[in-house]
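Hi P.,

Sorry for the delay on this. The queue was packed all week, but I finally got your sequence through. Input first:
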Amino acid sequence: MLKDYPLQLQVKQIAASLETNIRRFHAALYELRRLSQVLFLETRATESDIDAWFKQEGFGIDEDGFWLSLPNLKAFRENRAPGNILSHSWHPDLVRNRDACFRMYALRNLGPFLEEIRSGLSDAAWIYYQDITNTSIQFPYIDQITAITPDFDWSSYHTYQSVAPENNPEGKIQWTPPSIDYAGEGLILSVSIPVDLKGNFIGLWSIDLPMKSLYPEFVFDTLLKGQVNFIADQMGLLVAHPSIETRIDREKGSIFQHHFHELGPGFNTLKPEKLLDRKSGQFALSPPDGEEVVGYFEVIPGIQWIFFSAFPRQSMEDVVNQRIRNALDRVGSGDFSYRLETVSGIEQARLIAEGFNKMASALENQENLRKKNQEEKEKLEERLRHYQKMEAIGTLAGGIAHDFNNILFPIIGYAELLTEDLPRGSPHHDMVREIYQAASRARDLTRQILTFSRQSELKNQAVSFQSIIKEALKLLRSSIPSDIEILQNIQPDCSPVFADPTKLHQIIMNLCTNAFHAVQEKSGRFEVCLEEIKIDSEYQTGTERLVPGTYARLTVADTGCGMDKQTLMQIFDPYFTTKKKGKGTGLGLSVCYGIVKKLNGDIKVYSEPGQGTSFHIYLPAADSSAEEDQVPEARIPGGTEKILLVDDEQSIAEMCRNILQKYGYRVSAFVDSSLALEAFEKSPADFDLVITDMTMPGMTGDVLAGRIKKIRKEIPVILCTGFSEKISRKDYQGKAIDEFLMKPITVHKFAGAVRNLLENRKKEAG
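Then the structure:
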């Protein structure tokens, strides 16, 4: 059982096991003494009561001369006696002893109680009471013919002698050395406690038990060649030894009295009294004609026995050497976690073990550091691959946006022109209006693609949160399987929030994607809610960190697997994720947290395993209304100025010329930027304004604008583009450009930009 434990720890474990068993017997004896003292003090009995009991029990003298219950003896010999009857041992002359009769009478009903105690001590042989009057009771029942004679003097018995006041003045529980049991087979131990009444010693309770039952089976298990384990009492007499049963005297009732000094000449130097004072430790023996012996000892509390484990020193050294060889082999194979235990008092072995453990610890630390560095390297490589992938997606998105916006520009432009020319309410007007709205939705889709790839211009503004949510859900719906239900509860009149639309879009996409991943295995559902709430106290439950005021609260709740408390504590940590590889980077929620905090909002999460998850985003409401793209109704004035128009797309060039001519302008349109520059160089004074596309073969729009500005510095230039990485609204002023327009452009916005720029130039010139 303990073979995997170091030897010194084995000794302590066995001693502790013995102590536990011993305490069980001590507790039973304390209870027996207490109960008998109560019975002796509280029992009231006259001589007639005792005579009636004798008659009831059928007391008489048996063929061996004992005074006892003859019906119980007969029933026992016929195997029909109850299991809880008591066995009595009286000499017939004692029936005239009043004290003897009274105390036996007081204990007459103890059978069931003794049966209960013995059931808790399954290894007990007998429980018995001995009185100073030389009477006794035993449990379980015993036929005295196999044990003693009627005139046996109990005061000479070893249990009586162990607790008699002259030998035990402190009245302690005493264990006696092993003796041959009454049947003549094996050794038994006896443990006894004195019983006093009003300060006078009147008897004792004893428990007999087989010696082997007191200690565990593994007490004699050994690890080393030549090792021997044994137990001795406080006098040095052997209590347990692996060879003890083969050396006992078979004479009934004799006491086994071998001393541990008889185990060999080396043991003569060990003194039991000194070992008892030390409690535990190790020893070394050097017999003159034998091999050096070392070992450990441990005193067993409550009984003052000593457990020994002795072995030849060479056996220990052999084991230590083998362990060192095994340890080196394990380290050589790459197992740096192995450590050498200090298994003996051999100084050299201790130093080797300490040195080995320091070396193994250093190697383990180096290996852990190498693994950590490798993990960090793999994480960085994964992040780099992710960034490269996003960069590639962004490049692709930019190309798509440019081409798609160039396609949409003529559609939106001509549709807008037609809506102005056709009578309102006519079927053709309504059909063209539908064309315009469909193209506008396509334009918004392009913006979402650019938002996803992080290449659109970012700025905080008063924005309609509900419109962004609806657009994001449209985009998500196309990529989420139809068996996943998306519920929407969007408050239509919720106040706008002051934020960057792109960041809001990012929050919704991250939260909804997480919700989808949580429910996709069971085809569940998730819900997206938006509502306006008022927080009127900074102590309101769940919103303690928010300043009182009006907030838009976004809720994304799913019916998925949920999260435990440990996971909830980490979900906002960068790169923490519970998703399978390829499903997430662990950045989504940390990014959302950062966005919300920068907007002076807060984020709350509620989740339980198996109960789903709810995210609540609180964002302060903005003071102003959100801007919405609408087809302007006010008519923009035109003019007669001459405009140089350059776009490599023939359809766009034609459409822009038609729009400008409709507003009265004179237009020179080119699809080749080089030809346009030549025309301007020939007569720069003929033109009042230049409109150029950005992405054109040969010469891009920003280069063309710079060449034109060198010729006429004051001429206004409008740059149009579907998408460009080189230029954006925030930096067009530094590139010889006066106005920047993002395709597709509405007619009113296009015409308005032209008119505003021309009017500003007139004011500056005048």
